Structure formats: structure tokens, C-alpha cells
Amino acid sequence: MSIVPNLVQFNKKFVEEKRYEDYLTDKYPDKKIAILTCMDTRLSELLPKALGFKNGDAKFIKNAGAILTQPFGSAMRSILVAVYELGAREVLVIGHLGCGMTEIDVKGMVNKFAEHGIDPLAIETLENAGIRMEKFLRGFDRAEDGVMHSVKMIRRHPLFPKAIPVHGFVMNPETGEIEVIVEDYREEGKTP
User: Fold this and answer.
1) Is the pLDDT score of 98 beyond 80?
2) What pTM, to 2 d.p., does this model score?
3) Which of 32, 68, 185, 189 could covalently link to 153 via disulfide, CB atoms 3.0 to 4.6 Å apart?
4) Could you say which residues bind Zn(2+) here (predicted)?
């Protein structure tokens, strides 16, 4: 059975009781921060609370592993929009210990595609078109490596402003403790 009827029922009551009023804010991040982080469910509430953020403080961009796989993908586009259109003045990349992307089995995942009805010919066609599953689905050996990969890709992006600092962290998804991987201070208007 679908979860949708329960979601709609809850939502209707949420709106009728005006519970949304506790979350009112605007689209501009109050702390002028954009955060690229992992989609891991353990971080959904823990990460903002462990950093002292409330609703409206930061722009959160989430994907598998907080890793940028291509410089012109949707996550990088979101970071650029946060900086140029929404006033973010710093970017944080926050990975976490025990990330599923450190354990990803690319061949096993490709096999799961077939188990779920994806025609192997579709995968072969993608491979022949230059989309390599080993690269597309690749993870990293350590969370720190994934964070540094994304930090470097952001810093080196041809459309990213050189004056905006990009910091990297790894979080413990059980305690919320963060470890600074790279701290990047730049003064706006000056290049490093």
C-alpha cells in the first residue's frame, strides 16, 4: 500500500492547525551558507541541530555521499544558484563516517538494475555512449576523500567565485561530532 494517503491526511491536519508557522522564513539563508551533504537519513535532523542551525539558516543540497560526480550536474548548479542568487557567502561540504558510498559495489548495483527490470541492453547502450557505470556510480574509500574531491571540484569550477570559501567536514552520524578536513578563509573580493 502507498504511503501517499497517510502523507496527505497528515499534511491536511498540519495546514489546518497552522503548524507551518513555526517554520516560516524566506528563501535567503540567514547564515549565508550553502551545505553540500549526504542524503543519509541519519543526518536529516542531526546535522542542522549539531551545527546549531534552525530552519532558514542554510541552503541544504543533498546527494549520495556529498560527492560531485560532474562539474555541470544539478548539485553544482544548486551551489552556484545559492551563491549568485540567494546570497550564500560560504560553502560547506559535509560527509560522514559509515557512508554507503564507501561500500558501494558497482557491479552488484548494475546487477540490481537487471533484477528490477532494467534491460541490460540499456546499460550496454549507456556504456557505448560513454557513460561508464564504474565512474557514474563510483564511491570513495574514505569519507575524507569524498569531501576533498567535492571541495576541490567546487573551488576549481570555472563559474565559482574565487573569493567564496569552501570548507570540508566529516560528521559522526551517531554523535553529530564534526571533524574539520579543510578550513578555507578568503576575503570577499580577493583571490587566494
Assistant:
1) yes
2) 0.90
3) 68
4) 38, 40, 96, 99
